[in-house]
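testing teh design pipeline on a random one, pls ignore if ur not involved
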């Protein structure tokens, strides 16, 4: 029974790698739509990875599909926030957009903190927090049970270092998790959508937004969704206008 299970796992893994290689060959041959079909087949099988999303984004970028390329680059960054290749290609894709929304400025301390925070996803920050917490407990136990003074000093020093790193990773973990769950990013897919002051067609149209723009979802009422732009502006758009990244 175990042998059969192992064979099935190996065959499943081989099949996914085979599909991934096939999609990459299609991409290199310039058959981008065919490559997308194979990549989506891999997604449908339950496999999700930064590399897979990145390749899908690249394929859509090659056919000048800004919304889909940006959507998949953003999904790749959720799994690997500090991937420079994804960031660079995302910037190229954003150059295709009509809307140029300025991001709210940050002070140097906040910018530095966010930069460090983005190195890892919140799952990794949680892992580091648990790891250094266990390390801290281990060194404290060794400190208390050790009978040799030189070892006690060494374990005490290690405990202090572990405590310091634990506090840092805990702060990062809390903030990273908060940012992840408090944000609900999405990409506009409609060619053009009215950004309104209230959730109805009779309300004032503040301005128009266009496909590919990244937004943050705040609230949904019936068929309307309150969104926030990167410059802090808030307004209502039809719920069918976007696709959630998470």
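output:
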């Amino acid at each position: 029974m175990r042998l059969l299970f192992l064979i099935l796992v190996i065959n499943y893994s081989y099949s996914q790698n085979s599909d991934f290689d096939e999609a990459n060959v299609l991409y290199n041959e310039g058959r981008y739509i065919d490559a997308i079909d194979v990549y989506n087949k891999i997604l449908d099988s339950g496999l999700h990875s930064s590399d897979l999303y990145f390749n899908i984004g690249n394929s859509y970028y090659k056919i000048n599909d800004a919304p889909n390329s940006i959507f998949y680059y953003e999904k790749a960054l959720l799994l690997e926030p500090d991937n420079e290749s994804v960031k660079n290609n995302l910037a190229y894709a954003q150059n295709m957009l009509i809307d140029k929304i300025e991001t709210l400025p940050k002070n140097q301390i906040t910018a530095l903190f966010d930069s460090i925070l983005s190195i890892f996803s919140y799952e990794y920050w949680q892992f580091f927090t648990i790891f250094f917490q266990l390390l801290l407990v281990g060194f404290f136990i060794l400190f208390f049970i050790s009978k040799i003074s030189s070892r006690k000093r060494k374990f005490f020093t290690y405990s202090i270092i572990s405590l310091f790193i634990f506090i840092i990773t805990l702060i990062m973990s809390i903030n990273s998790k908060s940012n992840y769950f408090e944000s609900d990013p999405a990409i506009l897919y409609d060619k053009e959508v009215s950004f309104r002051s209230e959730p109805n067609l009779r309300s004032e149209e503040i301005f128009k937004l266009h496909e590919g723009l990244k937004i943050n979802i705040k609230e949904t009422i019936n068929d309307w969704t309150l969104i926030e732009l990167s410059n802090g502006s808030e307004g209502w758009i039809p719920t069918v206008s976007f696709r959630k990244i998470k």
